[in-house]
């Protein structure tokens, strides 16, 4: 159990280190003004971030997800294992689905504030008018000072709506692909790749809505998110 947890932490940290630059690019593309886009695409966004902020700009906000990896793994696999073993048929796909759903719901409580802080740090040098933070703790203090607990957990609902089906599909897909007596290492690796791809396909729409839904609630008007200004993003991230 301890070895599995350690392996999960190391693997999680490695995944964050490799994927964070692409996540930074994704956040910049998702939050740009669609009427006057700053970037023409992924490569253009990557090039402009490096030109303006150097390679370090791609890793802004890294401390928040790295710091949360161990805690999130403990929650995900702890909840998943406990829910699964209390099911009448713990090896059934239904058990994996329900256990994965419970794990996704539980970890969203940690993931939501972590992603809010990460996003603010990623964008603070690119959006004028956004209050600068020295790091994750300073960023959290700024949010807490202005909005308290409500501000820290802004977007929790849509994060839970993303992670609940995301983790359910994650565990079910993996189990479906390795349910043979002696799966090879290659088979397990391919199962991991497929399950991660499947999870991100299901989660991506909700990830975009993580900004859009909150903005619509905040503005309380009938304009679509695609018609809003960068100022709306500033209001979302600085309130």
Concise summary:
By secondary structure, this protein is an all-alpha fold. The protein is built from 8 helices and no strands. It has helices spanning 2-31, 42-53, 63-85, 93-123, 136-152, 156-178, 185-219, 230-238.
Task: Describe the overall structure.
Its main location: mitochondrion. Belongs to the mitochondrial carrier (TC 2.A.29) family. InterPro entries: MCP_dom_sf, MCP_transmembrane, Mitochondrial_Carrier. GO terms for molecular function: high-affinity L-arginine transmembrane transporter activity. Keywords: Membrane, Mitochondrion, Repeat, Transmembrane, Transmembrane helix, Transport. By secondary structure, this protein is mainly alpha-helical. The protein folds into two domains: 1-164, Alpha/alpha barrel (Mitochondrial carrier fold), CATH 1.50.40.10; 180-238. 75% of the residues lie in helices and 0% in strands. The protein contains eight helices and no strands. It has helices spanning 2-31, 42-53, 63-85, 93-123, 136-152, 156-178, 185-219, 230-238. The longest helix is centred in the C-terminal third of the chain and has 35 residues, at 185-219. The N and C termini lie far apart (41 Å).
Write the layout of secondary structure elements.
Layout: H1 2-31, H2 42-53, H3 63-85, H4 93-123, H5 136-152, H6 156-178, H7 185-219, H8 230-238
Broad shape? globular
Give the CATH level 1 class of the largest domain: Mainly Alpha
Tell me, rounded to a whole number, the average pLDDT: 75
CATH superfamily of the largest domain: Mitochondrial carrier domain
Number of strands: 0
Q: How many domains, in number, for the residues?
A: 2
Discrete helix count? 8
User: CA-to-CA gap between the ends?
Assistant: 41 Å
CATH architecture of the largest domain: Alpha/alpha barrel
Q: What are the secondary-structure elements, in order, as H or E?
A: HHHHHHHH
Question: What's the oligomerization state?
Answer: single chain
How would you classify the helix and strand content by structural class? Answer: mainly alpha
The proportion of residues forming helix, as a percent range, comes to over 70%
CATH fold description of the largest domain: Mitochondrial carrier fold
- Nearest-angstrom radius of gyration? 19 Å
Largest sheet: none
Percent of residues in beta strands: under 5%
Solcar repeats: 2-86, 91-180
Keywords: Membrane, Mitochondrion, Repeat, Transmembrane, Transmembrane helix, Transport
Protein name: CSON014443 protein
Pfam families: Mito_carr (PF00153)
């Amino acid at each position: 159990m301890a070895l599995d947890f350690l392996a999960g932490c190391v693997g999680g940290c490695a995944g964050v280190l490799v994927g964070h630059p692409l996540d930074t690019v994704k956040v910049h593309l998702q939050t740009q003004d669609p009427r006057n886009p700053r970037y023409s695409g992924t490569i253009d966004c990557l090039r402009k971030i490096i030109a303006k902020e150097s390679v370090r700009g791609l890793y802004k906000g890294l401390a928040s997800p790295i710091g949360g990896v161990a805690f999130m793994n403990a929650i995900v696999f702890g909840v998943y294992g406990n829910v699964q073993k209390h099911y009448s048929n713990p090896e059934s796909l239904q058990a994996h689905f329900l256990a994965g759903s419970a794990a996704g719901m539980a970890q969203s409580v940690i993931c939501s504030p972590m992603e809010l802080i990460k996003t603010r740090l990623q964008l603070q040098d690119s959006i004028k008018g956004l209050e600068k933070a020295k790091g994750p703790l300073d960023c959290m203090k700024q949010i807490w000072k202005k909005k308290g607990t409500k501000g820290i957990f802004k977007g929790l609902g849509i994060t839970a709506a993303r992670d609940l089906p995301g983790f359910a599909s994650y565990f079910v897909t993996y189990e479906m692909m390795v349910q043979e007596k002696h799966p090879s290492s290659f088979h397990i690796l391919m199962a991991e790749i497929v399950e991660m791809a499947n999870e991100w396909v299901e989660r991506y729409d909700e990830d975009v809505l993580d900004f859009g839904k909150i903005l619509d609630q905040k503005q309380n008007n009938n304009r679509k998110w695609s018609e809003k200004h960068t100022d709306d993003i500033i209001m979302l991230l600085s309130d």
